[in-house]
Write a sequence for this structure.
Protein backbone atom coordinates (compact mmCIF):
# COMPACT_ATOMS: atom_id res chain seq x y z
CA UNK A 1 0.00 0.00 0.00
CA UNK A 2 1.24 3.48 -0.91
CA UNK A 3 1.73 5.74 2.09
CA UNK A 4 0.29 9.24 2.36
CA UNK A 5 3.58 11.10 1.90
CA UNK A 6 4.27 9.09 -1.25
CA UNK A 7 0.81 9.93 -2.63
CA UNK A 8 1.25 13.58 -1.70
CA UNK A 9 4.66 13.75 -3.39
CA UNK A 10 3.30 12.08 -6.53
CA UNK A 11 0.36 14.48 -6.69
CA UNK A 12 2.63 17.55 -6.33
CA UNK A 13 4.95 16.13 -9.00
CA UNK A 14 2.02 15.52 -11.35
CA UNK A 15 0.01 18.71 -10.79
CA UNK A 16 2.55 21.51 -10.27
CA UNK A 17 4.15 21.24 -13.75
CA UNK A 18 0.71 21.67 -15.35
CA UNK A 19 0.03 24.73 -13.22
CA UNK A 20 3.45 26.19 -14.04
CA UNK A 21 2.91 25.63 -17.79
CA UNK A 22 -0.30 27.68 -17.61
CA UNK A 23 1.37 30.43 -15.57
CA UNK A 24 4.42 30.61 -17.86
CA UNK A 25 2.23 30.63 -20.96
CA UNK A 26 0.01 33.39 -19.59
CA UNK A 27 2.94 35.50 -18.36
CA UNK A 28 4.54 35.27 -21.79
CA UNK A 29 1.25 36.02 -23.52
CA UNK A 30 0.83 39.18 -21.47
CA UNK A 31 4.46 40.30 -21.73
CA UNK A 32 5.47 43.27 -23.81
CA UNK A 33 5.77 42.06 -27.40
CA UNK A 34 9.17 43.69 -27.82
CA UNK A 35 10.69 41.52 -25.05
CA UNK A 36 12.15 38.11 -25.83
CA UNK A 37 11.28 35.27 -23.46
CA UNK A 38 14.83 35.23 -21.98
CA UNK A 39 14.65 39.00 -21.42
CA UNK A 40 11.28 38.61 -19.73
CA UNK A 41 12.63 35.77 -17.58
CA UNK A 42 15.59 37.98 -16.59
CA UNK A 43 13.24 40.77 -15.53
CA UNK A 44 11.17 38.30 -13.51
CA UNK A 45 14.25 36.84 -11.81
CA UNK A 46 15.71 40.25 -10.97
CA UNK A 47 12.34 41.37 -9.62
CA UNK A 48 12.30 38.42 -7.23
CA UNK A 49 16.01 38.77 -6.41
CA UNK A 50 16.90 42.49 -6.40
CA UNK A 51 20.63 43.10 -6.25
CA UNK A 52 21.38 39.93 -8.22
CA UNK A 53 24.70 39.70 -9.98
CA UNK A 54 25.11 39.14 -13.69
CA UNK A 55 26.48 35.66 -12.99
CA UNK A 56 23.41 34.72 -10.92
CA UNK A 57 21.09 35.85 -13.73
CA UNK A 58 23.18 33.97 -16.31
CA UNK A 59 23.05 30.78 -14.24
CA UNK A 60 19.29 31.09 -13.75
CA UNK A 61 18.71 31.53 -17.48
CA UNK A 62 21.26 28.92 -18.53
CA UNK A 63 23.29 31.47 -20.48
CA UNK A 64 27.00 32.11 -20.69
CA UNK A 65 28.20 35.25 -18.94
CA UNK A 66 28.91 37.07 -22.24
CA UNK A 67 25.41 36.25 -23.57
CA UNK A 68 23.78 37.39 -20.34
CA UNK A 69 25.92 40.53 -20.33
CA UNK A 70 24.74 41.47 -23.84
CA UNK A 71 21.12 40.86 -22.88
CA UNK A 72 21.45 42.91 -19.67
CA UNK A 73 23.12 45.70 -21.66
CA UNK A 74 20.03 45.82 -23.91
CA UNK A 75 17.66 45.89 -20.93
CA UNK A 76 19.72 48.63 -19.25
CA UNK A 77 19.70 50.59 -22.50
CA UNK A 78 15.92 50.31 -22.65
CA UNK A 79 15.64 51.61 -19.10
CA UNK A 80 14.21 48.37 -17.65
CA UNK A 81 17.15 47.40 -15.42
CA UNK A 82 19.67 49.47 -13.51
CA UNK A 83 23.21 48.49 -12.57
CA UNK A 84 24.97 49.57 -9.41
CA UNK A 85 28.41 48.73 -8.14
CA UNK A 86 28.23 46.46 -5.12
CA UNK A 87 29.01 48.13 -1.82
CA UNK A 88 30.75 44.94 -0.67
CA UNK A 89 32.85 44.32 -3.77
CA UNK A 90 33.36 47.05 -6.36
CA UNK A 91 34.14 44.40 -9.00
CA UNK A 92 30.56 43.11 -8.67
CA UNK A 93 27.53 44.72 -10.27
CA UNK A 94 24.10 44.51 -8.63
CA UNK A 95 21.06 44.50 -10.91
CA UNK A 96 17.62 45.81 -10.07
CA UNK A 97 14.49 46.72 -11.96
CA UNK A 98 13.66 50.29 -12.77
CA UNK A 99 10.12 51.56 -12.30
CA UNK A 100 9.54 50.97 -16.02
CA UNK A 101 10.79 47.36 -15.75
CA UNK A 102 8.57 46.77 -12.73
CA UNK A 103 5.60 48.24 -14.59
CA UNK A 104 6.06 45.83 -17.50
CA UNK A 105 6.10 42.89 -15.10
CA UNK A 106 3.06 44.18 -13.24
CA UNK A 107 1.02 44.41 -16.47
CA UNK A 108 1.92 40.81 -17.31
CA UNK A 109 1.16 39.67 -13.77
CA UNK A 110 -2.27 41.34 -13.77
CA UNK A 111 -3.20 39.71 -17.08
CA UNK A 112 -2.06 36.34 -15.79
CA UNK A 113 -3.99 36.80 -12.53
CA UNK A 114 -7.14 37.52 -14.53
CA UNK A 115 -6.77 34.26 -16.42
CA UNK A 116 -6.02 32.28 -13.26
CA UNK A 117 -9.11 33.79 -11.64
CA UNK A 118 -11.14 32.65 -14.62
CA UNK A 119 -9.75 29.10 -14.35
CA UNK A 120 -10.29 28.97 -10.57
CA UNK A 121 -13.79 30.49 -10.77
CA UNK A 122 -15.21 27.03 -11.37
CA UNK A 123 -14.14 25.97 -7.87
CA UNK A 124 -16.41 26.24 -4.85
CA UNK A 125 -15.61 28.56 -1.93
CA UNK A 126 -14.66 25.47 0.10
CA UNK A 127 -12.27 24.31 -2.63
CA UNK A 128 -10.78 27.81 -2.86
CA UNK A 129 -10.19 27.76 0.89
CA UNK A 130 -8.54 24.34 0.58
CA UNK A 131 -6.27 25.62 -2.20
CA UNK A 132 -5.30 28.61 -0.06
CA UNK A 133 -4.57 26.34 2.91
CA UNK A 134 -2.40 24.14 0.69
CA UNK A 135 -0.47 27.18 -0.59
CA UNK A 136 0.12 28.37 2.98
CA UNK A 137 1.61 24.97 3.79
CA UNK A 138 3.71 24.68 0.62
CA UNK A 139 5.12 28.22 0.52
CA UNK A 140 7.52 27.94 3.48
CA UNK A 141 8.53 24.40 2.53
CA UNK A 142 9.77 25.50 -0.89
CA UNK A 143 10.63 29.19 -0.32
CA UNK A 144 14.23 28.65 0.75
CA UNK A 145 14.71 25.15 -0.63
CA UNK A 146 18.30 24.07 -1.00
CA UNK A 147 19.10 21.04 -3.09
CA UNK A 148 20.17 18.00 -1.10
CA UNK A 149 23.40 18.20 -3.13
CA UNK A 150 24.16 21.66 -1.67
CA UNK A 151 23.41 20.77 1.95
Amino acid sequence: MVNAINECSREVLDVVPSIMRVIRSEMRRHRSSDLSVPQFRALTFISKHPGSSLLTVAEHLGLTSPSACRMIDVLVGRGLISRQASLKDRRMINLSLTDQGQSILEISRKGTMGNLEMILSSTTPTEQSTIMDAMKILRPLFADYKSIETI
User: Anything to note?
Assistant: The first helix runs from residue 4 to 29. The chain is about 65% helix and 5% strand. The mean pLDDT is 89. The radius of gyration is 19 Å.
